[in-house]
Design a protein that fits this description.
By secondary structure, the protein is of the alpha+beta class. It has 2 domains: 133 residues, 3-Layer(aba) Sandwich (Glutaredoxin); 44 residues, 2-Layer Sandwich (Antioxidant, Horf6, Chain A, domain 2), CATH 3.30.1020. The strands form 2 sheets. The protein has a 7-stranded mixed β-sheet with strand order 2-1-5-4-3-6-7. Helix 2 packs across helix 4. It is elongated. The N and C termini lie far apart (39 Å). Bound molecules: benzoic acid. The site of benzoic acid has 7 residues, from helix 2.
Length: 211
């Protein structure tokens, strides 16, 4: 069955381009992005992995580890990484899981047979320090992901994990937030001393509390 938000991310051991890992140990006390790509030595995947390598410092700033996966063997990953580094002007600096027997792909429901026969689609799982799934995304093979959007979502997930706020459409870090409906308007000044605006009784905004 598909993993749902709030489910525990299944643990596994796997061979990666940076050695054998146990997934929950790899996550440690931080956050993790586990993302799959359909196939090594393919064009869109090459650009995606190069992009992730180049913005890895942005994930690190947020305390997030990244790890990729496909059903290709480790030898293919290692050979392909040279191409990624060459063509994308980067150094792939995060592990790629080799899952040739598809154990992990099946555990995470990354194979969607109506889309690709026996290959993983472009799945993304954001996993919190409690090892629970905080976000899932699924893209088809033909559409490369927007990893800036992934960073934006992580900013929201990390903020809303710690404050009683939600983030509006197209929100970016540093912008006003929405006070969650569970907080009565009369309690807002105590909880959000930076101020607030009541636009409607159900729509109250406040400056981002941790900025
Ligand atoms: C790609 O990365 O370009 C790709 C991979 C699998 C199927 C189609 C495209």
């Amino acid at each position: 069955m598909a993993l749902r938000l709030g489910d525990e991310a299944p643990n596994f051991t796997a061979d990666t381009t940076e050695g054998k890992i146990t997934f929950h140990d790899y996550i440690g006390d931080g956050w993790c992005v586990l993302f799959s790509h359909p196939k090594d030595y393919t064009p869109v995947c090459t650009t995606e992995l190069g992009t992730v390598a180049k913005i890895k410092p942005e994930f690190e700033k947020r305390g997030v580890k990244v790890i990729g996966l496909s059903v290709d063997p480790i030898e293919d990953h290692n050979g392909w990484i040279n191409d990624i580094n060459e063509t994308q002007s980067c150094t792939v600096n995060f592990p790629l899981i080799a899952d040739p027997d598809r154990t992990i792909a099946q555990l995470y429901d990354m194979i969607h047979p109506n889309e690709l026969d026996n290959l993983t689609v472009r799945s993304v799982f954001v996993i919190g320090p409690d090892k629970k799934v905080k976000l899932t995304l699924t893209y088809p093979a033909s559409t490369g992901r927007n990893f800036d959007e992934l960073l934006r979502v992580i900013d929201s997930l990390q903020l809303t994990a710690n404050y009683q706020v939600a983030t509006p459409a197209n929100w970016n870090d540093g912008e006003d937030c929405i006070v969650v409906p569970a907080i009565p308007t009369e309690e807002i000044p105590d909880k959000f001393p930076k101020g607030h605006t009541v636009i409607k009784p159900y729509l109250r905004t406040t400056p981002q509390p941790n900025k």
